[in-house]
Amino acid sequence: MNRLQNSSEIRNTWTREEAEALYNLPFNDLLFKAHCVHREHFDPNEVQQSQLLSIKTGGCPEDCSYCSQSARNNADLPASKLLEVQTVLAEAKKARDGGATRYCMGAAWRSPKDRDMRAIEMMVEGVKELGMESCMTLGMLTPEQILRLKDAGLDYYNHNIDTSERYYSEVISTRKFSDRLETLNLVKESGIKVCSGGIVGMGEENMDRLDMLVSLATLEQHPDSVPINMLIPIEGTPLQDAKPVEPIEFVRLIAVARIMMPKSHVRLSAGRTEMSIETQAMCFFAGANSVFKGETLLTADNPEESKDAHLFKRLGIRPMALKSCTKEAETC
Predict the structure, then answer these.
(1) Which residues take part in binding [2Fe-2S] cluster (predicted)?
(2) Which of these is catalytic: 96, 148, 180, 267?
(3) 227 domain residue, yes or no
C-alpha cells in the first residue's frame, strides 16, 4: 500500500492488486485522493468538450456485441457511404462555433481502405484549419496509413480496448485483444496522441473493469485521453438486455482511472443520458474532465447542449477554451 501514498506519481507499473486496493477504499477517501490528484494536474473547474460525428455508418464486418453498426447484429441500421469532405467540415465548423475544441470522426470499418485515405486526410486538414484538435477512429491501421494521418496533422487516434483481456473474447470474436494493443503501439510510435478507454456494463465482472484500467495504465505511455463509456443497450444487439452499472461503482472507476493516469483527460463518454446530474457531478469531482457535446454519439443519444450548459452553470464548470491548433504547432 505504500506505493499508493504518492498518488500523483506518473508510473506504468500498476498492478490489479493496487487498483483493487484503491477501488475498495472508503468512498470519501477514494474521492478525496482522486480529487487531489486531479487538482495537481488540471483546473478542477474546466471540462474539455469534444464533438463526435459518424462519417461512415453501419455495415461493419466486426461482431462487437455492443454495437448497432455491426453487420452481424440485428439493430436495423442501414449502411452508408463515407460522407463528403465538405459535409464533414461544415459540421465541424458548427461544433467549433458551439464550443467544441476537439472534433472526433468515426467510421464503421474494421480498417480503412487505401482508396478512402485521401478523403480522410482532407477531413483532418480541414478540421485543423478551423483551429480545432482532430481525432479519428477508423479501426485497425497499417503503418503506412498511420504515417499518412500523421502527415495530415492528426492529433489523436481513438482505439478503445473495450474491456479486460480475459473478457474480451466474450464481447468480440473477429479480432483479438492483442490486435488492439498493436494498433495503439503503432499510433504511439508515430507521435499521434492515443485516445483509448473502454465500456462498462457488458456483463463483465468488477475485476475486468479494473484490469481494463490496469492495461491502459501500464502502457509505455498513458493515453492522452481515456474515455469511459457506460453501455447503452441497443435493441437488436446481443447486449440489449445487459444490466446497468450502479452509479457509485461507476464513480469509483472514474476515481481509480484519475489516480492511475494523473495527466490523462478522463472522459465521460456514452451513457450520460442515463446518469443523474448528481452522478455526473461526482464524476467531475473524482477527476473526469472531458465530455462529448452534441445530441448524438455516432448512433446513440447524448445529452442536449442546453442540459449540459445548465449542469455546468450549476456546478461552476467552464468549458476549456479553444486553442489555436495547426499542423505546424508542437502542441495543441
Answers:
(1) 104, 135, 195, 267
(2) 267
(3) yes
67 in active site: yes
Find the domain containing 296 and state its range.
14-319
283 annotated among ligand-binding-site residues:
no
Among the options 96, 102, 135, 209, which is catalytic? 135
Q: What is the pLDDT along the chain (332 residues), one digit of tens a residue?
A: 444 545 567 899 999 999 999 999 999 999 999 999 999 999 999 999 888 899 988 778 788 888 877 766 665 666 778 999 999 999 999 888 888 889 999 988 888 898 999 999 999 999 999 999 999 999 999 999 999 999 999 999 999 999 999 999 999 999 899 999 999 999 999 999 999 999 999 999 999 999 999 999 999 999 999 999 999 888 888 888 889 899 999 999 999 999 999 999 999 988 888 889 999 999 999 999 999 876 554 445 555 667 888 888 999 999 888 765 444 344 44
Decide: 268 and 302 in contact? Cβ < 8 Å.
no
pTM exceeds 0.70, yes or no: yes
Does residue 84 belong to any structural domain of this protein?
A: yes
Coil, helix or strand for 70?
Answer: strand
Whether residue 195 is annotated as binding a ligand: the answer is yes
Grouping H, G, I as helix, E, B as strand and the rest as coil, residue 309 is helix
Catalytic residue among 180, 195, 272, 332: 195
Residue 5, domain member (yes or no): no
Q: Into how many domains does the chain fold?
A: 1
Domain with residue 45: its CATH number is 3.20.20.70
What residues have CB less than 8 Å from 246, skipping those under 6 apart?
Answer: none
For residues 146 and 193, what is the distance between their CA atoms, to the nearest angstrom?
12
Q: Is 3 part of any domain?
A: no
